[in-house]
Amino acid sequence: MRINFRTIKIFIKIFIIHRILTPSFSNAEQLNPKVHNSFCEVAVDLTTDNWSVSIRNSGIFCIGSTLKQTFPLIRLTHQAVPMSPLISIFSSNVTVDLMNRNLSAQTPTGQGVVAEDTSRMPRHTIEIRSGTIRTASQPTIFMVNSWNSNNVRFGSGRFAIAESAGDLTQYKPTEFVLENLTLTAENHVIIMQGMNNIIRHCKIIGGNGTVNVFGPNLIFEDNEIILHARAQAEASDQAPAALYLEDAAGSVVRNNRITIKGNTSGSQAIVLKNSPNVTLQGNTISGTDSLYNLLDEQSSVMATDNHLNR
């Protein structure tokens, strides 16, 4: 077979010109992503696997490709598989626009968005918006400001994330925002910890312990939660609760729809621990006989215009 070197040279020149003229995209390791348009910097996985992206700088970012994580049916020796979350955030003052994309991590270890204090540098002012994230057994959203081993809300201490064993003065403003998202997981969907956080206009579909928020002054409004409840013994001893609030003093939960399906026996819509002066307003609850459950004397609510549809 004859090789046309002249054709190869022309192709190489065209490729080089194309690379020069085409804007670069940012990925996990680039510290200064290129501006893609007038309002955001584009974040993509430059490995071409489209598994994950990491954001290490402050700024406004757009997810530039549909991220999807799966394991092969048969894994070959040395074959790479996705291990990082779909989106990892290592900085504060970050906005991530999913651009209405559908992100999926259908592996046993696959997480959605992770922003946590891993270097004693608390994360704050992080917004995730406009898109769909689906995971399997891991949370779709894990945004945690700091750790505290005194709290064992999730049993083993591995998710010990309530700040300073109920001392509300220890919480720091995190100002996390989730908006216009569809979030789905088999178990926990959201695990969030911090102060002055907002979750609004989201559809959240999960299992026992669907939404778990730790910290004061949460605004949780105009959301829909669908809890596919299972017996506690079948869900790693997690009680079937749609919205769990701890240390949530002064929080507002309003204009939400909570639907409990599956094993509704013993299922609860809203559970509060160490959470005084929480406002429950205009919420519609289906699949259970009670609007809320207080786990201790420290918790209290002001409930108005809520509706129970058994």
TrEMBL record:
Stated name of the protein: Right handed beta helix domain-containing protein
Record field: transmembrane: none
Organism annotation: Duganella dendranthematis
Annotated ranges, domain Right handed beta helix: 176-289
Keyword Signal: yes
Signal listed as a keyword: yes
First and last residue of the signal peptide: 1-28
Coiled coil location: none
Organism lineage string: Bacteria, Pseudomonadati, Pseudomonadota, Betaproteobacteria, Burkholderiales
Keywords for the protein's UniProt record, in alphabetical order: Signal
